[in-house]
């Protein structure tokens, strides 16, 4: 039986897939860490074949970003020993590269975009990362007719001009805050990783309701308005991905 672990930053992103499969929280499974495990009620947490793990909360707010993602991924791998980790969630995209709100992508690569380390920005270094994604990602995308794109990860919702330029220079198409951290930990444990991301906001489209110069706030507005829609689209794609995954998993 193949063991699949879906890792989310936000509960709102994970809720549709939790409800679809009827997963139940296994309270205290990762205690004292804040991350939460959801699994099939009839299965022992360590013996299931599908797990959803969410970063958890701090003072009532979802834990987002690289640090929470790395901690969650490490403890999930250690305690659950999955055959495949899927970093799931929402992201920003660029209309000029064909992205649209609600569109779901499978990553063909993942990197950090906010690590500027002079002399260390080559392939597979600590600077950009450029971690390998599971080779089966291309087959799944082709089978489901899904677009692919390079995911880039940073610790802030907005982008500096330097980060924007670095993303463009390295072929980034989707911007978010956790994927490269998940991939980094998976690379240490040699666990295959796949990234499935749905667009909530377009980085090159600002909100018409805001005056010029307040683009970041407009991006936040777009993200919040589209989060529920994008999470539903993400759930639909994840179900298709799970149903299409080969058993046993090749290329491990």
Give a concise summary:
With 252 residues, the chain is α/β, with parallel strands linked by helices.
Overall residue-averaged pLDDT value: 87
Number of helices: 6
Give, in order, the helices and strands. Answer: EHEEEEEHEEHEHEHEH
Q: What is Rg?
A: 17 Å
How would the global form be characterised?
A: globular
Q: How many beta-strand runs?
A: 11
Strand content: 15-25%
Q: Determine the structural class based on helices, strands and strand pairing.
A: alpha/beta
- Main sheet: which strands, in order across? 7-10-9-8-11
* Biggest sheet layout: 5 strands, mixed, barrel
How would you portray this structure in words?
- With about 250 residues, this protein is of the alpha/beta class.
- It is built from 6 helices and 11 strands.
- It has helices spanning about 10-20, 65-80, 135-145, 160-170, 180-190, 215-245, and strands at about 5-10, 25, 35-40, 50-55, 55-60, 60, 85-95, 105-110, 150-155, 170-175, 195-200.
- A 5-stranded mixed barrel has the order 7-10-9-8-11, surrounded by 5 helices.
- It is globular, with a radius of gyration of 17 Å.
């Amino acid at each position: 039986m193949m063991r699949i672990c879906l890792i989310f930053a936000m509960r709102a992103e994970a809720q549709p897939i939790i409800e679809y499969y009827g997963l139940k929280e296994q309270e205290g499974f990762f205690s004292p860490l804040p991350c939460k495990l959801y699994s099939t009620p009839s299965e022992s947490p360590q013996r299931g074949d599908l797990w959803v793990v969410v970063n958890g909360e701090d003072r009532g707010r979802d834990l987002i970003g690289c640090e929470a993602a790395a901690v969650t991924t490490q403890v999930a791998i250690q305690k659950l020993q999955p055959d495949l980790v899927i970093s799931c969630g929402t992201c920003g995209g660029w209309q000029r590269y064909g992205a649209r709100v609600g569109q779901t992508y499978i990553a063909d690569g993942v990197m950090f975009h906010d690590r500027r380390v002079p002399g260390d920005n080559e392939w597979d270094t600590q600077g950009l990362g450029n971690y390998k994604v599971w080779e089966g990602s291309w087959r799944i995308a082709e089978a489901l007719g899904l677009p692919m794109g390079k995911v880039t990860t940073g610790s802030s919702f907005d982008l500096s001009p330097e980060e924007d330029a670095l993303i463009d220079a390295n072929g980034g198409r989707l911007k978010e805050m956790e994927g490269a951290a998940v991939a980094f930990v998976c690379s240490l444990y040699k666990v295959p990783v796949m990234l499935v991301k749905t667009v909530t906001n377009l980085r090159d489209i600002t909100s018409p309701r805001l005056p010029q110069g307040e683009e970041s706030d407009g991006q936040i507005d777009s993200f919040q308005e589209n989060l529920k829609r994008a999470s539903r689209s993400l759930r639909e794609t994840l179900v298709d991905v799970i149903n299409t995954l080969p058993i046993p998993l090749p290329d491990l």
